[in-house]
Amino acid sequence: MEKIRTLILGGGPAGFTAAIYAARANISPVLYEGIQPGGQLTTTTVIENFPGFPGGVDANTLMDSMREQARSFGADVRQGTATAVDLGQRPFRVTIDGEKQLEADALIIATGAQARYLGLPSEEKFKGAGVSACATCDGFFYRKRTVAVVGGGDTACEEALYLASLAKKVYMIVRRDVFRASKIMQQKVLGTENIEVLWNCNTQEVLGDAMGVTGARLLRKDGTVFDIAIDGFFLAIGHTPASELFAPWIETDANGYILTEGKSACTNVPGVFAAGDVQDPRYRQAVTAAASGCKAAQDAEKFLLEQVNL
Predict the structure, then answer these.
(1) Model-level pTM?
(2) Of 90, 141, 196, 297, which one's alpha carbon is 20 to 30 angstroms from that of 1?
């Protein structure tokens, strides 16, 4: 069984930033990238809102740079996914890919969250070519254009309002005849001139060509099928944090997001820390994930130093 000082699970902005700080602090980080190296950031193309890149940066290029920066300071970056954990004893025990057994003195969980999609083949086909689950990330590309937002909750309303400040027109595709959102958000949406709500509608297919999304085919509750012409198709039906593996030991909220103590990255289990989208139901941005990775590494360093002095 391999013994590790600081184990980091997840290879997105949070995980790699934690690895950079942990390596510089000389707490010997080993990072496993998980099932999606680079994190869900790599499902988009050009990132224009990450600081330091006035002309934008390709998502994969950004993550490759973070990976190499972590390695340059001595972080051990590996392929593999945690498939079992035991956080009921220290050192913590983690199994990678069902085979490799590890013991870790400190554990940083940076496994991220996955946006929920409708599950349409056409939706998958146009991911990164007009289909997005992040209006803040990709909305700028649709200035003066027409877009659709799927969802009826607060997040969907927030996304629609944000897009309405950029786009010529925003359709909201709502499967019921009412919003699930708070009253104030409903009022804001219904009071915005360039937002049109399509009630009782489900998406049958995302339409497009070699250049990307061109429309969506919708099915009304009464059986009517019709098409809308759009340039972008945004999902706002929630995220699923990758926290299930840790649920027997780590406290989460009702939606599965890991709870951290105050402004720290500390979980309810001493020596286990959480960073990035797995503990962030609100912002879910690369820059906030990176910041939380920094916090997790510094909290882990403090924990390990205190253990030595006990």
Answers:
(1) 0.78
(2) 297
